[in-house]
Amino acid sequence: MKRNDIKILHDKSVTELQAQLRDLQKQLNQAKLEAVVDKLADVNVPAKLRDDIARIKTVLRNKQLLAEAEQKKQAQAVEAKEDKNNKDQTE
Per residue in 24-66, pLDDT tens? Predict the structure, then answer.
């Protein structure tokens, strides 16, 4: 994967990344089968596919962590607002 392709991964949605991940995993399985029967022209293809899969999984994990952090931030904001409302009502 070229540097520009890696940057493009960060702009894709989670569903697009998951679809691309499934496609790469299928390609990897096919490449492994072809390697067994010596029909694989480039023996580095499985390694390149594994690297691409790892890159996509990394981007997916980063997106998941960002989403969790955002949810936590929103929950804290709601709790702070509720605490302020409760404090105002008791006064």
Answer: 999 999 999 999 898 888 989 999 999 999 999 999 999 999 9
pTM score:
0.80
Whether residue 55 lies inside any domain: the answer is yes
**Total domains present in the chain:** 1
Per-residue pLDDT, averaged over 67-75, amounts to 93
In a domain, 12, yes or no: yes
Q: Examine residue 24 and state whether it is found in any structural domain, yes or no.
A: yes
Using alpha carbons, list the distances in angstroms from residue 62 to 10, 18, 31, 34, 68: 9, 13, 28, 33, 10
How wide is the angle at C-alpha 7 spanned by C-alphas 55 and 73, nearest 5°?
80
Measure CA 70 to chain center. 16
